[in-house]
Every structure is written in structure tokens, then in C-alpha cells.
Records
---
Amino acid sequence: MSEPAREQWASRAGFVLATLGCAVGLGNIWRFAYVAGENGGAAFLVAYVACVVAIGLPAVLAEFALGGRARLDVVGAFSTGRAPRARRRAGAGAVLTAFLILAYYSVVAGWAYKYFAGYATGELRGLPRGEAAARFAAFLREPFEPTAWHFAFMASATAVVALGVARGIERASRILMPLLGAIVLLLAGYALSLPGAARGLAFLFAPDWSALARPGLYLAALGQAFFSLGVGMGVLITYASYVREGERLPRAAGMIAAGDTLFAVAAGIAIFPAVFAFGLDPAQGPALAFVTLPQVFALMPGGGWFATAFFFLLSAAALTSAVSLLEVVAAFGMRRLGLARRTAALLAGLAAFAAGVPAALGSGVWRDVALLGRGILEVMDYVTGSLLLPLGGIAVVVFVGWFVPRAAAVEASGLRSGALVRLWLLAVRYLAPAAIAVMLVALAGA
Ligand code: PHE
């Protein structure tokens, strides 16, 4: 049953930009570049593009088809037609995954807010190079500040979602996404002009073709493709449920896959030449953005400005992604509990804030708390990213490929050409489920 007055995107570009906003996030800015560098550079890039085209893109279109057809939140979309409990559970699992990712994602994004504020006000500008690591550790160790920034970030995401699909999410994406594109290109251009840029490019792109023989490369590429495209958590289903009649979903899916990949490559070009130009180590994960890069900024001419722009980029990219995750939870609350949008957004935001507090404290006062030998934030990242996300992905492709009647699925996808329809069905029914299953088995064995 669909609501009489379901909200809609005000324009086609709005839908594409909002979905691109979901895709472009923390994953593109530090995770992609690091994973690429570790997995054979250009060889990884080739495998990554193959995963995006052969598995990610069909899965994006499957989510779009599901959402566009059902015009419901993710749980509703999964249970249309005959509704065995298993399918409703898959939908509920997607809501839970989105909620958990949002909780810790907001903590890291809060660090980005802090560093943006620190560079914008000048507080962090004079930071001597040797003190970057200690300063970050001191910030994390403090009980109050990281939690406060986590709160500030979640509050801004909540405000955007509370304003609604067109007035909140679409408007924020229309302003932020073109701006982010411009900033990342400017930063990449400046980074290329630094002496030593070639070594950074070599780290990112130098082809080590022997890496193609390592199975780990493909797992990394597939996992990164899913996380980065935002597949498997119901975000794309939810966003597609707001499209207007006649939206060209295949075209939108292609633009998002291409835009997301180009953005990741541009961000890598902005980051690595600078890291190498100043002789630093390309470190892993959050440390790269919050410890290594501040050292680069301290040495770079105009580093304060570069840093301000960089952390704005990181914060805003994270914001549009967090908004999409919050919308999944809020949309579910609106339909299921009949809540008004504002109430649903507020409750979901508060709950996700609370769920993120242990992760915020886990890098500081609670840093001795370890589950399975990892910190709280790492565990949340691992469980959601490596386990729940592939499970969500497989649920979507299996549901669309095998449970939705074939003609209805094809019609909902918007694909017209027979050849493309066959390729899409091949990917959604066989290729994607098999690839994800292999990935899950390999992880279980790891
Ligand atoms: N795609 C986002 C990123 O690259 C993260 C994200 C995952 C956002 C899932 C929404 C849904 O950072």
C-alpha cells in the first residue's frame, strides 16, 4: 500500500545528485586510495572498474528497480507481493545495517568537522609537523569533545532529513555535490604541481599486474565497490522510491557509478602526490586523513588553505552519505510507525547518536575495550562492511532476479534494449549472487 502523498524529487538532476551524494563519502576519499595502493595500483583499478561495471552497476539498477516499483521504504519494498517472513527480515536487516553504519560513520565524520573547524579558525594551522599524531591522540582521548562533534554531525544530518526529500536532501545535494567536484579537482590539480608528485601517482597507479593473480585483490575490489556505491543497505531503494514517473533509471545508475569512480580517483590524486612529495608514509585508514595529511599541510605552501578545503570536502561528502543512511531509517519509521517526517528524523538521529557514543569513546577513554581483539569502531566497521553489507547486497539481487516476476523486474529497471536486458538479468541472477557468495565464504575462511 503506498501513501497517498509520497514525497518526490523535484527534478531529475536532484535524484542523480542526491544518489551521488550517498555514494561519494569517506570511502572515496581515504579508503579507496589506500586499498588501491596496497593492491597493486593500476591492477586494482582495473579489477575495481570490472567489479563496478559487472556487479555494482547491475546491483544499483536492481535496487532502483525495486524502489521505483514499490514506492515504499526498504522493508515495504521487500515485502510487496506475497510476503514470506524471510523477505521482510531482509528489509529489516537493511534498516539495521544502515543504522549501524550511520552510528560509527558519524563518529569519523565528527573528527572531520573538528579538523575543518580547527583549520578554518586557524587553531590547527600552526601545528608543528611532529605533533600531528599526538594532537590527534589527545583529541580522541578527551571524553567530551569527540562525542560533541559526533553529536554536531548527527544533528546536521538530522536537520537535512527533517526538511524533507526535495527541500532537505535534494537541496543540500544540489549545493554540495558540484562544490565538492570543484574542490576535489582543484586539490588534485594543486597536488600534481608539487615536486615529487610522480611518486604519488606511481603509488596509486603503477601497475603491478602480478597482483591480479591474488584472490584478495578481487575481494577488496568487490567490497570497496559495494561500500562506495552504497549497495546493500536500502539507500538506493529508498531514494528510488521518490523518483518521478518516467525517470531513466539505467542512465542514472550509469552516471552514479561513473561519478563515484571518478571522484575516488580524483581524491587519490589529491592525496598521494602530496604525501610522497613530503616523504611521508601512506598510512592506513583514519590515520591517513587525521595524522599523515596534517603533517603534509604543515609543510606545504598554502597548506592551511588546502587543509581547510580538504576537511570541508571530507565533512560535506560524509554529510550527504550520512543523510542517505538516516533517510533509510526515518522512511521506515514514517511508514511503519506512522510518524511525521520530523519526528521520525529526530528519533532516528537521536538513536543513531546514542548507538555511536561507544564508538566515539572507544578510540579514547574506552580504548582498552576490545571485542575480538579490535576496538569498538573497528568492530562496527568490520561487521557492517564485511558481513551485513554483502548479505544485504545478495538479498537485493536474489530478490529482484528470482522472486520478482521477470517481466515486472525488467519493466521496473527501465532497460529497453534486449541485449542489455539479457546482460542485466545475467548479472543480477547469476554473476552477482555468485560473486558475493564467494566473497562471504572467503571472509568466513579468513
Ligand atoms: N558510499 C559511502 C562512502 O563511500 C558510504 C555509504 C555506504 C553511504 C552505504 C551510504 C550507504 O563513504
---
Amino acid sequence: MRNTGPITVRKLHPLFGAEVSGIDITRPLSAREFGPIRAAFEEHSVLLFRDQPMDDDKQTAFSENFGPLETTGSSNPAVGTKFQRQSNLDIETGLPIPNDDMRMIYQKANYFWHSDSSFKRIPSLCSMLTARICPPSGGNTEFLCMRAAWDALPPAIKATVEPLVAEHALAYSRDRVQKGILSAKALAELPPVRQRLYRDNPINGRRALYIGAHAGHIVGWPYDTGRALLAELTERAQRPEFILSHEWREGDSIVWDNRAVLHRATAYDTVKHKRLMQRTTIGGDAPTVPQ
Ligand code: OGA
Ligand code: MN
């Protein structure tokens, strides 16, 4: 496809999400070509691109239009990788990993609503996930519109939440799967950080509730009271009408705004079927509160 005409943006859900077509994102894009995509991202929070066969280099190049990529796996950028692999396939053999293997257990944290890298001092802007191998059923990714979740909060709760700061850490989400699952090294590399409970979009001012599975408790509150508030906010947010569930096809790419949506993985038959998704994560530009 030559990138000559205007892009088409088709809404996927009354509240958020859009499919962008009429552009080949596997080719390098000029600033002029990328501009409308960035604008659609700020507006719709979740962008789907279909039939765009990706490899790691093409995904890296497209992702970098949004900004510099985060590295994961280590705090040392020299050894960190730009890709987060969501898969049941062993990277060496390509065969399904047994269900009781730690690599599969670790991935179960993705079943909880979360915002990627909210456990980093500067949380990410957005993530891009590309479908390389899809199971015939299951394995959807679900998105939760946190702008709608904010708007639906009663005024008294908004007033309570506005000045609060939550402590986020990778350990909080991983401990839900299995207590103590993170190594001492991983714990030392990722000390807890502070995040405000909302994010304002700098372009259109839309406010989103900012919580998720990495949020552990509220700074300055008794631990259990803070956890209970976070649980209540999550409960209020996860209304069926705020959820967009995406059934993946090979060649799909999705970019989501980690400031404005939470997301989660859903189950599939990991013994019978194969799933391979590659994620890149684009860094944010500032902490949400002084640390
Ligand atoms: C992720 C993630 C969900 C999925 O890549 O950050 O949460 O469905 N993925 O694989
Ligand atoms: Mn994720």
C-alpha cells in the first residue's frame, strides 16, 4: 500500500477505541503521515491497525514515532530488551511451555486490569502489541475506558481521590498471582514509586482514573484502608459498558494509551494452541507526582 490518501478512523466502541485504515504502518512514515495517527491516539485511546504484517524492526520503527522506547527486563539499558513477549511458546524450541512452568505463572498477572509500567517513576505513554500467532479462540485483550470511569465517579469520591497518591510496584501485581514470585534482584531494581490517581490528557484535557494492579496502597493512609479504596475504585470502573474486548487476528497491531485505559489479557488453551504477541512500550515524559 502506498501512503497517499487520508486515513480512515472508524470507532470501535461508543466511548473509546478506533480502527485506523488506509495507511501502511509497516513502512517508514513522514511527520505529516504520522500526525493524524497521533491525533487519533489522543482522542480515542486505543488504535487498531489490521492486516499489517509486523516484524520486530518494523514494530520498533513505528513505535518510535510516539517517542523513545522503554526497555524491560533490566534496569541496565545495555542488556534490557525493547520487547515484552506475551506467549506460551518457548523462545528456543517454539513449543508450548507447560502450565506449571514459572514463565506461564508469571504471565498470569496480565489477567488483572493494569497500566503498563505504572510501577516506573516515569510511567509509560503507550504500548503497542502486535499479533504474530493467534489461538483460534480466546486470548482476547480487553481495554477499560478510564476516562468514562473517572466521569462516572460520584463528586464526593472525586474530591477524595484528587489529592491522593498511590504507591505502585511490580511486586503488588505479581504477589496477587503468587506471593514472593519476584526475585530479590527484581525487587531491588524496581523500588516502589508514587503516582497520582488520575491523569489529564495534555491535548484535550480529558481526565482518566489512574489505578490498576500495580497500585498497592495509598500514601499516608492506613494500608488496609488504602487497599480497600483502590479495590472500590476498580470495582466502580469495571462496568461492562466501559470495556472493549479485542479478538486478535494475525497481522493486527494495537496501540493503547496507558494514561487513559487499563487493559488485561484473557485466557486461552495454552496447551493446545499457540499465541505469540510482541509488545513495545513507549516511555512517558514526566513523573505524575514528585517522588
Ligand atoms: C501487555 C499485556 C495482554 C495480552 O502486553 O502488556 O498486558 O492479551 N498483554 O497479551
Ligand atoms: Mn500489559
---
Amino acid sequence: MEVIIQPTTDKAALLVARLIARRLRAKPALVLGLATGRTMEQVYDYLADMHRRENLDFSLCRTFNLDEYVGLAPNDPHSYRYYMDKHLFSRVNIDKRNTHLPNGAARDLAAECRHYEDLIHDCGGIDLQLLGIGADGHIGFNEPLSALRSRTREKALTPATIRQNSALFRGGEGAVPRRALTMGVGTILDASHVLTLVTGAEKAAILSKAVEGPITSMVTASALQLHPDCRVIVDEAAAKRLRGRAYYRWIFQNEPEWQEFRNR
Ligand code: F6R
């Protein structure tokens, strides 16, 4: 795992967008794992910008989102399908048939989850998975005690997640669905590369547990420590409680692979 500290939220999101763009340029038929949430909005703004200004090409790119609420139709403004259309898919030249989210309105949810795993497998697996971390340390909707080898399945959301996500629901906490379909921790760990973005002071405590604490299913983001190619990009506010801050800064300033991203 590598932790990269950026001075501002903006710079952290821009770095994530640049890393995605670099992979997409190197492999136009990239299989990209995507996340929703407030943290990602800026990343998608930057990617849309790069498409417009630099012709960043999504025409061959295939995407798989981490999760979707159970019971919400794709055209529901609170669904993650709607979020993705709004923040990214409608703003770039992606072929909508190449964009995938689990269908939370499916009649047979277990079959839908198996089908989702098969689709990922048939595409050759995820090349690059984008992640955020929830207030309770989740990745996807892998809430505390999710098995670290879990696959795509239905999960009940914790009160902390319902509270966190209620900001995006007009009806408040009562309007947030109680269940979701989510890639498992095992599904996420199968991706070839993982890019995690964590910003804001309110994530500082959970970030230090995820990155520097013990690996535990109580904080499913801690399973990322097992991944051989995982980068965690953070802003100064989120980094505040990391004990290894000085070393992480040194890495960004000195390792040759980061050279093209310094001073930009
Ligand atoms: C979203 C997802 C979640 C979020 C996490 C952070 O698809 O899988 O794990 O990444 O809850 O959400 P924000 O960015 O809203 O704090």
C-alpha cells in the first residue's frame, strides 16, 4: 500500500483523475471499477473536463460500479445508476451498454449478484478499482463484520451509513434504503490495481484505522493492506491522524514514479 498526501481536497481528486486517465490512455478498453458518493464527484468533474479539453477517450472503456441500493429503480434520482449518469456517463463518450451496476430492483437479488460476478469475470476482471471509505470504514457497502473473502451480495446498511448517506436524500434518514447490493471485499481485492480517495477531517480517524490499524472485518477498508497494488490518495485534513505522515510525504517527493505528478 502507498499513501499519498496532497495539500488540498482539490489536488487529491485531481491526482486520482490523472491516475485514472493515465491507465485509460495506456489501455483504452480498460475495465474500470467505479464508486459513488460525495468524495467522487470532483474526480468525475475532472474526468469530464479531461474528456472535453484533452479528448480523453472512454469509447472502449467498460465500467462496473461497486454497489446499488435495493428497491430503487435505475431512473430513481437517488439510485447510483442515476448518480453515475449525471456525474460521469452523460458527460463523456462512454457507450452506456458498457456501463454496469448491480440492479437493486431485480426480482431475484441473489441471482442478480451471481450474474454481476459472472459479468466481471467475462470482461477479464477489473483493471482499476476506484474506492472511497465510509464513516464506519466500509468499502463498497461492506459494513463491519463483512467477510474479507465475500463476493457480490445483499447487505444491510449500518445506522452510521444510513446517517452518512441521508444528506443525499430529500426525505432524510427515513428515506434511505436499508439494504444494498455490493461487490464483496473479495471481489474488490481481485482488481489488478486499487485507487482509494479519502478527504476531509471527518474521515481522519477511520482512515488511520484502515491504513495503520490491524486488518479486521470491523473496518473492511483495512483489508486493502492485503492488496499488492493499492494507492490511497488523501488530503491534509484526512491525513491528520496518520502516524507515518512524514514517510508518506517523502515517498511522493522522492520516488521516481511520482515525478510527473509533482508540482502540478
Ligand atoms: C459508494 C461506496 C461507498 C462510498 C463511501 C464514501 O459507491 O461504495 O463505499 O465510497 O461511503 O462516501 P462519501 O464519498 O459520500 O463520503
